[in-house]
Amino acid sequence: MSENLSNLLLTPSEMAAVDAAAAASGICSFDLMERAGAAAAAAALRRHPGALRFVVFCGPGNNGGDAYVAARHLQQSGAKTVLFHLGDPARLKGDAARARSGCALEGQGLEVYRPESGDVVIDGLFGAGLARAVPVEVGRLINRVTEADLPVLAIDLPSGLDGRTGKVLGAAFRARNTITFMTRKPGHLLMPGRELCGELEVFDIGIPARIIRAEAGGAIAENTPDAWKGALPAEQLETHKYKRGHLVVFSGDADKTGAARMSAISGLKAGAGLVTIAASGAAMAANAAHLTAVMLHAVDDEADLAEWLSDKRLQTFVLGPGFGIGARARGFVSALADRRLVLDADGISSFKDDPQQLFDLFRGEPRLVLTPHEGEFSRLFPDIGDDENLGKVDKAVAAARRANAAIVYKGADTVIASPDGRALINTNAPAWLATAGSGDVLAGIIGGLLAQGQPAFEAAAAGVWLHGETAHRAGKGLTAEDLAAAVLPL
Predict the structure, then answer these.
(1) Binding residue per annotation — 411?
(2) 31 assigned binding-site residue
(3) Residue 338 assigned ligand-binding role
(4) What pLDDT sits at residue 241?
(5) What pLDDT does 7 receive?
(6) Is 373 labeled as ligand-binding?
(7) 50 is an annotated ligand-binding site residue
(8) Which of 55, 191, 212, 439 is the most exposed place for a label (fewest CB within 10 A)?
(9) Annotated binding residue at 132?
(10) Average pLDDT for residues 339-350, to the nearest whole number?
């Protein structure tokens, strides 16, 4: 992809603006459609050489125009091709009408189609621009294709998926392959869209990168090192442990100390200069029996913490893993309001009855990272979480703005959001990362990066990416202990 557009994600409205700008610049829009349809036909022939029949579904807009072009190329290649259309094709306008007039195949209504063995479906009904539930007849068609277990190649996006949110709008095809053009959409990466797209191919149809970048909002991208590597601390030969940051992780009770230790060792291996576990007197022995490189400090109550915080070298903290829910957690967080904090698990749930109390503590330059999973997110942001009109990116950004924090909205499609509106979608986490204690390791990694001076959003994004890479390194069947041991600094 020219000029490294591969990580850029454009919403459907932004892509529509790109198309309009390309046409305004003198680029022939029908030539773009011709290239898109030809690319779809080539992908179908390449991916499905054993197809007995290509079944092309054409919609009422430009996605349907791409499909008419694809059908023409498939027929001209000698492949058996049949065509079915949604609505009256005589009502097509512009490039789509021109594409239909150039296709010699006589189409039939979608309701006529009955799956046959050896069919390969080319889905050109809606693409990424759909913003409402699919019509009833399309839902029935999707069910017939799904029940027949036919391979589907989707043009742009499987019909029925929202290109911005990745949500299913009533019903959606499960594609084996999807071909899109110039850049991906958020819906290609967000769940369940990522799974329903199958193998995704991005094809360059010739729109200049300068036009794409001019129209792209740039607020949403894939989480890759390009998004945060500029914020990594520079390696220097002349340094010492305090220059690399001191991370403090709070331990839970004597019978719940393991989570903090996994966070602590992860932060140390992620590059923090030194790491200390802060534990109550009752939990000191349990921790001491398992610690070597990680230090230990007794903190029983807020008074102990306040006294310790007189050491201004203590700037970065992780609170939550195994800590316990309640007033003690809230008091400790209040004491840390002027420091950098990763708040996870029990720390988040401790504010479920009054989230605003937490948000009011961390105003000014963002220095708070919140790492909620779905349930924790709904407890802190119930109105945002329940809003069906918002996708995961929208929810994460709204939460980040309200909390003035970097939000790590966890899941198979983890979204990292900043109060300034930036959002990154993470894609490198393997399925086997879903294991008990994995979140404790993530909190520690983010804390270790935050301790080294990375801004909250960049530390969160880099931590999520490193967490996924570490899981690949550790391999299938990993435990949280394996994951922590496999962490390597960026």
Answers:
(1) yes
(2) no
(3) no
(4) 56
(5) 76
(6) yes
(7) no
(8) 191
(9) yes
(10) 98
* pLDDT score, position 218: 81
Amino acid identity, residue 91? Answer: R
Q: Is the pLDDT of residue 237 over 90?
A: no
- pLDDT level of residue 87 (50, 70, 90 thresholds): very high
Q: Does the annotation list 159 as a binding residue?
A: yes
For residue 354, give the DSSP letter. -
Stated pTM of the model: 0.95
440 is in an annotated binding site: yes
Burial 205-226 (b: 16+ CB within 10 A, else e): bebbbebbeebbeebbbbbbee
410 assigned binding-site residue: yes
- Identify the residue whose tokens are 């009054």: 354
453 assigned ligand-binding residue: no
d(CA 281, CA 299): 7
* Residue 210 pLDDT greater than 90, yes or no: yes
Q: Does 226 count as an annotated binding residue?
A: no
Would you say 148 and 115 are in contact if contact means Cβ atoms under 8 Å apart? yes
First to last CA, the chain: 26
* Integer Cα distance of 177 and 159 in angstroms: 13
* 130 labelled binding-site residue: yes
300 is in an annotated binding site: no
* Domains of the chain, first to last: 2-218 (3.40.50.10260), 225-231+240-486 (3.40.1190.20)
Q: Is 311 annotated as a binding-site member? A: no
Among 458, 465, 341, 452, residue whose Cα is nearest residue 403? 341
200: number of Cβ within 10 Å = 16
Does residue 452 contact residue 463 with C-beta atoms inside 8 Å? Answer: no
Residue 102, marked binder: no
Alpha helices (H) along 309-381:
327-335, 345-349, 355-361, 374-380
Query: SS3 of 427, please?
Result: coil
Strand 415-417 versus strand 406-409 pairing type: antiparallel
